[in-house]
Amino acid sequence: MTSSEISEFKAKVAYMKTWRPQSAVSNRDKMEIYALHKQAVSGDAPQRDPPNLSVSERTNLREWRKKRGLTQAEAKAAYISECDRQIRTYGTAPQPAAANGGGGGGSGSTANARGSGGRSGTQTPTNTPATPAGSSPGGGSLLTPRGIAAIPLLCAAAAESRISYLSRLKSTGRPENGWWRKQEPLCADPGSPLATPESAVLASASKVEELSLLISSEWSGSVPLPPSVVQSFLWPLHNVLLAIWVLLIFICTHIGSGILLCKTTLLGARATGAPLGRIFSEDIGPASLAAQSLCEPHQAVAVRLTGLCLMPYVAQCNACRTVADRAGPVAGGMAYVFLSVMTWWFWLCMLPWFAFSEICTAVMLGWC
To answer: Residue 137 in contact with residue 176, Cβ under 8 Å?
Structure first.
């Protein structure tokens, strides 16, 4: 690397030590930053685990080993690129009057002094609360920061044109560098049973992207059609899968809001750390506004259709917020849970049918 590139790497490391992301931090992105930094500074990780390692230290070492084979120069370049991506994705929280110079939203040994990353977005909707997930008083954790705050970026990705899609695939190169591979569930911890629906969508989209990339690289000579033709066929499916991911986020948020309302009503706000009024103002309200934003004219067709399907959800949120304003948050919470139970068929039958129809339409559009 040139001296200017080394200076850029050092400057990026220094910046990440004080960077404060606006949204909740993904453990996966924390580990990516950590592993790239270790590879850039120390080279390949040792083959064997040193004795007496803690669980977190073993996790760090395992992630570091995944970067084996990268030269330190390549790791530095990858570190800079990954930092820039996370800064764009997360945004930067307003600095307090007296900054303490702590790590950029990291926690524990997985983030240490390298900073961290996430998956919400720089262009978060105006209705998204600035408080990161998990920072509510009493330990309460609402779904809005990780799920709903990512909606604008996912909608922007779904609006990607065919030319832009082909250009991005060309610049991506290898399947392991694919965009979908770097994504993870937003409304549940990765690997948990609650993350299964999102994980299924992400796995399907990753396979579609992997196929697109393999056709233009390893399989370029064995496919009778030009790679751009096959990739153009898969482009509508990519955009529709993004819209389905958005739909899943709203379904998970809706279910999570109902469960949180029940727990707070039965156990009290001290047990959940989320008062009923706060659930309406920071979870249900922003989700309703985000759903309405899907129908705006600048959105992609798949996203606008998703927004139309979510109009009953918007009506439910608005009606329950009105009840909460007039009769109190307890009455509003009971109305929300009651309507959710009464409309189970809409969430478990109608919306999955709509998602399946979108996939079929995307495949037909690809053939046209």
So the answer is: no
Per-residue CA distances from 337 to 213, 263, 287, 317 (Å): 45, 11, 16, 11
Intra-chain end-to-end CA distance of the chain, in Å: 47
In contact, 96 and 85? CB cutoff 8 Å: no
CA dist 341 and 123 (Å) reads: 34
Select from 260, 360, 365, 245 the least CA-distant residue to 294: 245
Q: With 0-12 CB in 10 A as exposed, 13-18 as middle and 19+ as buried, what is 343?
A: middle
- What band does 168 get if pLDDT is binned at 50, 70 and 90? confident
Instruction: Give the predicted TM-score (pTM) of the model.
Output: 0.62
User: Among 11-15, 130-134, 276-280, 326-330, where is mean pLDDT lowest?
Assistant: 130-134
Q: What is the pLDDT of residues 192-247, one digit of tens each?
A: 788 888 899 999 999 988 888 887 766 666 667 777 888 888 888 888 899 999 99
pLDDT for residue 119 is more than 70: no
Q: State how far the alpha carbon of 231 is from the alpha carbons of 141, 316, 367, in Å.
A: 40, 40, 11
Distance CA 321, CA 284 (A): 8
Model confidence pLDDT, tens digit, residues 76-113 = 888 888 888 888 877 888 765 433 433 333 333 333 33
Residue 244 structure tokens? 């389905």
Kindly report the length of the chain.
Answer: 368
